[in-house]
């Protein structure tokens, strides 16, 4: 299985506490996800983020096909970082670390995703042709939305 990595860094003009409050709330994820993904939370306990929390979604990554996606929050260190991992969904592996670091101008936010696709050789071709570009577009959209909401751009 081929493991891929996607890393993004963004500076957010907000306090660490405000940044954490927004990004650690699963209900805000839809606000920064492209509409074309058909992203919808289908089950969530509406509690503050905690290790062991299960969140269920529907996503439409390709051709409008709705797919279930289940993630678990596996680790939380308040105002510092959290990790979500896929338990069921389109990836063979999805491990997403969200880091938050206070700076003199706000917060340095780093996303580090390790992922793998199913289907061996076909999965590798799909990553080259579609998946890596789709993930880039999702994170590019997220950057624009975060800039609009926090950085006044």
From TrEMBL:
UniProt cross-references to Gene3D superfamilies, sorted A to Z: 3.30.530.20
Superkingdom to which the source organism belongs: Bacteria
SUPFAM superfamilies xref list: Bet v1-like
Protein name: SRPBCC family protein
Origin species: Flavobacterium algoritolerans
């Amino acid at each position: 299985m081929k493991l891929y990595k996607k890393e993004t860094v963004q500076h957010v003009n907000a306090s660490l506490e405000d940044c954490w409050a927004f990004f650690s709330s699963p209900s805000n994820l839809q606000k920064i996800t492209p509409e074309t993904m058909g992203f919808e939370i289908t089950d969530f306990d509406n509690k503050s983020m905690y290790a062991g929390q299960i969140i269920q979604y529907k996503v439409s990554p390709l051709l409008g096909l709705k797919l279930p996606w289940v993630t678990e929050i596996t680790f939380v260190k308040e105002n510092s970082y959290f990790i979500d991992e896929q338990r069921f969904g389109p990836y063979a592996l999805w491990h997403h670390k969200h880091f938050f670091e206070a700076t003199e101008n706000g917060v340095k936010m780093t996303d580090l995703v390790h992922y793998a696709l199913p289907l061996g050789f076909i999965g590798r071709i799909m990553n080259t042709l579609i998946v890596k570009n789709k993930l880039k577009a999702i994170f590019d959209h997220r950057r624009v939305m975060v800039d609009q909401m926090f950085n006044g751009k």
